[in-house]
Amino acid sequence: LQTSAWQVDMVCEMIDRLDECQSALKAARVLQVLSDGYLQIGPEGPEIASDSLYVHQTSTILFPVGYAKSHKIDLQGPKGEKEETFEWKSFLKRTNYKPAPSHFFDETIIWDKFQVGMRLEAFDQNEKMMLCPATVKEVKGRLVLVSFDGWTDDYDQLFDFRSNELLPCGWGEMMGHALQAP
Prior knowledge:
Keywords: Repeat. One of its GO terms (biological process) is negative regulation of DNA-templated transcription. GO terms for molecular function: chromatin binding; histone binding. This protein is mostly beta strands. The chain has two domains: about 10-105, SH3 type barrels (Roll); about 120-175, SH3 type barrels, CATH 2.30.30.140. The protein contains three helices and twelve strands. The protein has helices spanning about 65-70, 90-95, 170-175; strands at about 10-15, 25-35, 40-45, 55, 60-65, 75, 100, 120-125, 130-140, 145-150, 155-160, 165. The strands form two sheets. Strands 1, 2, 3, 4, 5, 6 and 7 form a seven-stranded mixed β-sheet that branches. The longest helix is centred in the middle third of the chain and has 8 residues, at about 90-95.
């Protein structure tokens, strides 16, 4: 991964861990390049500064421009723009922002351990202590779309395939952690 060439106003796609919606990516922009590979980055829009996160440039929540489209993941543009009409090409032309080069990001790792329909236990990313029975709904590059059993699609969440929040069935019982009923 490229470590020193990040610049303010570079754009990319990200999972917004502060948002309730964890099944889509958002258009994001770098606000500050900090020391030791850290970035202040936020979802594009009028509240970008207050919605921003501090993450390491190797974070698994960052993706190159076009990742969502190439993996058929919903992409949310700036707040106030219609989700279905957001296009990177016109946005970049209108703003003069530059996309972060694709070699800045963790490469898609082909790993076939997660299969659609596989059962597992997963921690809800919004309620960190809630362990739930879940099912792999889709595999999208290095992301796994998980559906929580008994919940509507509105609560589906994307996880990096290496996430320590995805666990084998029986993990909760073995570790003495309560498993939420579907």
